[in-house]
Amino acid sequence: MLTGNLMQWNDARGFGFVVGDDGKRYFLHVSEIARIATRPRQGDRLRFEPALDREGRLVARKAVIAGANLAATRDTLRRGQPKAGRRLEWRYTLGLVLAFSIGVGVLEGRLPWAVLPLYLIMGTVSFLLYRADKRFAEEGRWRISEAMLLACDLAFGIVGGLLGQAVFRHKTAKPSFIAFTLLIGFVHLLWLIGFAAGWIQASDLLELAKTVGSV
């Protein structure tokens, strides 16, 4: 273990940099800090395990802030209580419902076949964007804007976006982002229900596109 000082900390983005007693600069992500009752602050003294990331850069692992009060873990708070079952991540559930609706709609001929590759391609793009933004956050690099992530979800990438959020545990704590994600998910769900119920026809969309194009 090595000791050092937290010389830079971005609390909103959950990362900062430690200058170790060896004079080297280490990247530190909030997930590597032992649970504490307060947020990390610039100037904190800490112990950590020096390591290298996949690209060979210096990072701090298993950091413990000196003098910090450790926060009680969930297991400690539940000690003596019956164990609860594992909670199902709602993003998986919503993504599965959307994927099922798309598949059934296409197979029953209520959705145009072109919709399937559209959702697949944009879903893959959205998933990869969340993975990249998570990595950028961990490495302290320039981030992908939230507007771009949400726009990709809206543009038929919602299934991949939900999967990316759940798999990488990214953008899962900010209330406004969660609200927009839910809104986009339900907009797509209503759109798919409209096709399944026959309220929306492919011919109607073509006529609408022609009308918009002629304006």
From TrEMBL:
This is CSD domain-containing protein. The keyword Transmembrane applies. Keywords: Membrane, Transmembrane, Transmembrane helix. The chain crosses the membrane at residues 88-107, 113-132, 144-165, 177-200. The keyword DNA repair does not apply. InterPro entries: DUF1294, NA-bd_OB-fold.
